[in-house]
C-alpha cells in the first residue's frame, strides 16, 4: 500500500495529527479572544454542526418509527391512566 492510498484511507487521523501539530506551533490562533473566537465558534457553530451531521446519518424509516411511536403512546397512555385512578 502506497503513501497516497494510506493517506486516502486514514485521512481523518492524518487531519487530527495535522491540527495538533498546527496548534502546538501557534496556540494563539485558538486562544480566547484569538482570530477563531473559540467562545463563539465552539459554543454555537461546532456543537450545531456535530448534531446536524449526526442527524443526517440517521436512517429514515418512517413506517417502523410510526409503529414504534404509536405503541409508545399507547403504553404511556395506559400507564398514566393507571396512575391517575
Automatic annotation (TrEMBL):
Entry keyword set: Signal
Signal among keywords: yes
Signal peptide coordinates: 1-23
Membrane-spanning parts: none
One Pfam match: SBF_like
Source domain of life: Eukaryota
PANTHER family, per the entry: SODIUM_BILE ACID COTRANSPORTER 7 (PTHR18640:SF5), SOLUTE CARRIER FAMILY 10 MEMBER 7 (PTHR18640)
Family: Belongs to the bile acid:sodium symporter (BASS) (TC 2.A.28) family.
Protein name: Solute carrier family 10 member 7
Species in which this protein is naturally found: Sarcophilus harrisii (Tasmanian devil)
Amino acid at each position: 500500500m502506497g503513501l497516497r492510498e494510506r493517506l486516502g484511507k486514514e485521512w481523518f487521523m492524518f487531519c487530527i495529527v495535522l491540527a495538533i501539530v498546527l496548534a502546538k506551533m501557534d496556540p494563539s490562533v485558538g486562544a480566547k479572544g484569538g482570530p477563531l473566537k473559540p467562545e463563539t465558534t465552539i459554543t454555537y457553530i461546532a456543537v450545531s454542526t456535530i448534531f446536524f451531521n449526526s442527524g443526517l446519518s440517521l436512517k429514515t424509516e418512517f413506517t417502523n418509527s410510526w409503529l414504534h411511536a404509536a405503541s409508545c403512546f399507547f403504553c404511556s397512555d395506559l400507564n398514566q391512566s393507571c396512575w391517575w385512578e
